[in-house]
Write a structure and sequence with these properties.
This protein has 3 helices and 16 strands.
Length: 243
């Protein structure tokens, strides 16, 4: 049988070491000899003796935070021996290796899989207030290990060494040490009052030393009203959960 489909670049890539690695730009391969954590519903194929266990958001505390914030990662534990392939709607997949002392803030919807040696928590993005439910809460990862994130298209990594501004729906992840806030990008004027809008009401601001990963696509925003209602419902309980 002959076909370009069977070209070498499309064949499964083998390795002698267990762990997360790219099969191609849109497909993650986990060579299992133990366990990894992955977003629920992202497995597309597997070989060998593999078990899948749903974990919700990774514990009762994170589950409660997810219910009140709308963020987080619905997780499954994947364990055993074999090969497991993960993907998310043909999004581009990128690997990040964390060392002790590193910390990265990631939009929960862009987390694909990660080593079980990593820890994560749901944190409020400082300075964003109740302007938008998009990017208001993020997952902060720490520890030692590898994680895989997704982007819609090829991203750009901005070095933050001067004031930096990014659309909240395009900001995928950033150095957790950066100071975040908001910046009104659209100037108020007569055009704004009569309904002429640029579509760029405000942007996230970043200050300090670090990086911001920006994708060439904007995730659909949940809207200002939705974010405000969510905050009002959570009240003091949400503040306590995020301490």
């Amino acid at each position: 049988m002959r076909s370009a489909l069977f070209a070498a670049e499309n064949m499964e890539k083998e390795s002698q070491q267990p762990g997360l690695r790219l099969q191609n730009s849109k497909l993650l391969k986990a060579e299992l000899n133990g366990e990894v954590m992955a977003r629920t519903g992202t497995m597309v194929a597997y070989q060998g003796q593999v078990q899948f266990q749903a974990l919700g958001s990774g514990g009762m505390g994170k589950w409660l935070k997810q219910k009140f914030t709308g963020e987080g990662v619905p997780l499954m534990k994947v364990s055993g021996r074999g090969d497991v392939f993960f993907a998310d709607r043909a999004s581009d997949v990128h690997l990040i290796d964390l060392e002790p002392g590193d910390a990265i803030s990631i939009n929960g919807s862009n987390v694909l899989a990660f080593d079980s040696t990593l820890q994560y928590d749901i944190k409020m993005v400082q300075g964003m207030g109740m302007l938008s439910s998009a990017g208001l809460f993020n997952c902060v990862f720490t520890g030692h290990g590898r994680l895989a994130i997704t982007t819609k298209g090829t991203p750009v990594v901005l070095t933050v060494d001067q004031p930096t501004y990014v659309d909240p729906q395009a900001a995928i992840c950033w150095s957790a040490s950066l100071q975040t806030g908001y910046h009104r990008a659209e100037q108020l004027g007569l055009g704004t009052l009569i309904g002429r809008r640029t579509g760029e009401a405000f942007t996230m601001s970043f200050a300090g030393q670090g990086f911001v990963v920006v994708q060439p696509s904007e995730e659909p925003a949940h809207g200002l009203a939705g974010g405000q209602a969510q905050q009002q419902q959570s009240g003091g309980l949400l503040g306590g959960l995020l301490d």
